[in-house]
Design goal:
Pfam families: zf-TRAF. The protein is α+β, with helices and mostly antiparallel strands and about 80 residues long. Helix content is about 40%, strand content about 15%. The strands form 2 sheets. Strands 1-2 form a two-stranded antiparallel ribbon.
Length: about 80
């Protein structure tokens, strides 16, 4: 029983393998890492580099391929 509770039970809490700091039910962890985790790996749509989702917007500000495709992409519009 102890092994089931600590290693197999789908209702046990597990830390996210992507080190986001969250704890999730084991049965929901895969979905969290694939769709919801801010540290899930995603490709830049321009250069295809894999990076954590949380870093994607900052990456776009300096992505060489994005700047080649859209030279004004790094200029921010400020609206009042």
């Amino acid at each position: 029983m102890e092994h089931h509770v600590s290693e197999e039970c789908p209702k046990r809490l597990r830390e996210c393998d992507l080190k986001c700091g969250g704890k999730y039910l084991a049965e929901e962890l895969e979905q969290h890492m694939a769709r919801d985790c801010h540290r899930r790996p995603v490709p830049c749509q321009y250069c295809k580099q894999q990076l954590p989702m949380k870093d994607l917007q900052d990456h776009y500000m300096g992505c060489d391929r994005l700047l080649e495709c859209a030279p004004t992409a790094n200029k921010l519009e400020v609206k009042n």
